[in-house]
């Protein structure tokens, strides 16, 4: 058992280095350099390189099992950069936006950068609560709603087909812009989630954000935005794109080779297999080591969202966990206000099985010391 490892950080949402496809990218880079023209070193087309978008459309059509038009895709420099650009072009400081509650904590930072007023709409096991959303819409006129429909960060929840349909109906009725962060959609462990909200870009105001960070490698800083051409034009009319041109032409060319050689598919399938094993190992260790913790076993993505045994609060627990050399993100980080004080988010992307098990042992010891301390 690897007891000597320093801190085990369950908050770390990065893949382990051993999972990054260095050899595949080496092969793709060589292939790309052999067939390349100097165009890939020039300022790029506003929407992103056409040939890359065509390869990407084929890849996504296969992986999403639905037709995808290259015209509906715009290249981005990752989901974070895309979200920032969406805020720049579709909101102004002081606007209200809706987010799920809980939601990805760093998206909250992007919204703060843009001076937005964030209103949370709770989720349950089927995703966003449509009844609460409808009620909130009688009181607010949000510029957009930000959702993570599949294998949500932090809860792991996937929105049901019925909720997706209801959300699309609301978007059409109220012309509400839905920003769907679908970065985990392709990371299922065997059972595909319902079709992504990207399926609705031609009939509702939807922008779907995708990224190679979670399905290939974060260091690429490459992603895409899927949306109707009118919405993409609004994004392209930004100072960022007008001054700098289309984003990441060089990395797009390498990724085009990755896709065309079938290496993007094999890298993604490898990640799905490994994360499925790690998720199962973490959940089994939690059931054995902390039997009173409450959680749903994830079907995809990166995270287990754990409700701590009764009356334990995550933030004070985190302080005590430091002495056991384990850490995690307390639930309260994933809200724009107080709440989820008894929840923690555990990522299984960064560590292999022995370290995940050791991390749970450390967590279990912290919790039992916490109980002794309180009694
Ligand atoms: C929901 C969600 N969106 C976006 C990101 C960041 O993606 P990118 O690396 O493409 O900027 C993350 C990373 O943790 C995430 O969990």
Main traits of this protein?
binds pyridoxal-5'-phosphate; three-stranded antiparallel β-sheet; 14% strand; 13 strands; Aspartate Aminotransferase, domain 1; eight-stranded mixed β-sheet; Aspartate Aminotransferase, domain 2; 375 residues
Describe what you observe in this structure.
By secondary structure, this protein is α/β, with parallel strands linked by helices. The chain folds into two domains: 8-16 and 265-374, Aspartate Aminotransferase, domain 1 (Alpha-Beta Complex), CATH 3.90.1150.10; 22-261, 3-Layer(aba) Sandwich (Aspartate Aminotransferase, domain 2), CATH 3.40.640.10. The chain is 42% helix and 14% strand. The chain has 13 helices and 13 strands. The strands form three sheets. The chain has an eight-stranded mixed sheet with strand order 2-9-8-7-6-3-4-5, sandwiched between helices. The longest helix has 27 residues, at 263-289. The two termini are 31 Å apart. The relative contact order is 0.18. The model has no long low-confidence stretch (mean pLDDT 95). Residues 13, 78-80, 104, 148, 153, 181, 183, 211, 213, 218, 223 line the site of pyridoxal-5'-phosphate.
């Amino acid at each position: 058992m690897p007891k000597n490892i320093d801190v085990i950080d369950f908050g770390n949402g990065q893949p382990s280095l051993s999972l990054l496809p260095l050899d595949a990218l080496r092969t793709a880079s060589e292939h790309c350099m052999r067939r390349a023209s100097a165009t890939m070193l020039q300022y790029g087309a506003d929407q992103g390189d056409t040939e890359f978008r065509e390869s990407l459309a084929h890849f996504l059509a296969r992986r999403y099992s639905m037709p995808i038009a290259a015209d509906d895709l715009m290249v981005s420099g990752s989901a974070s950069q895309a979200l920032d650009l969406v805020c720049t072009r579709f909101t102004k400081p002081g606007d209200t936006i809706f987010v799920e509650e809980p939601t990805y904590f760093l998206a909250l930072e992007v919204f703060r950068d843009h001076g937005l007023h964030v209103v949370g709409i709770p989720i349950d096991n089927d995703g966003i609560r449509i009844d609460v959303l409808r009620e909130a819409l009688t009181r607010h006129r949000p510029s957009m709603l930000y959702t993570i429909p599949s294998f949500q960060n932090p809860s792991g929840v996937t929105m049901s087909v019925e909720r997706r349909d209801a959300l699309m109906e609301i978007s059409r009725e109220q012309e509400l812009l839905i920003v769907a962060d679908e970065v985990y959609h392709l990371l299922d462990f065997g059972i595909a989630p319902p079709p992504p909200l990207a399926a609705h870009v031609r009939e509702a105001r939807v922008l779907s954000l995708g990224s190679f960070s979670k399905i290939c490698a974060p260091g690429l800083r490459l992603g895409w935005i899927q949306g109707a051409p009118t919405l993409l034009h609004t994004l392209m009319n930004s100072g960022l794109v007008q001054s700098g041109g289309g984003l990441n032409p060089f990395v797009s060319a390498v990724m085009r080779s990755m896709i065309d050689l079938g290496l993007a598919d094999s890298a993604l399938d490898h990640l799905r297999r490994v994360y499925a094993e790690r998720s199962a190992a973490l959940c089994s260790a939690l059931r054995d080591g902390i039997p009173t913790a409450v959680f749903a076993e994830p079907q995809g993505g990166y995270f287990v969202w754990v409700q701590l045994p009764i009356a334990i609060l995550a933030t004070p627990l985190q302080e005590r966990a430091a002495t056991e050399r384990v850490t995690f993100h307390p639930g309260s980080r994933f809200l724009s206000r107080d709440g989820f004080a008894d929840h923690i988010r555990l990522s299984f992307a960064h560590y292999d099985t022995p370290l995940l098990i050791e991390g749970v042992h450390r967590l279990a010891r912290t919790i039992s010391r916490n109980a002794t301390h309180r009694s």
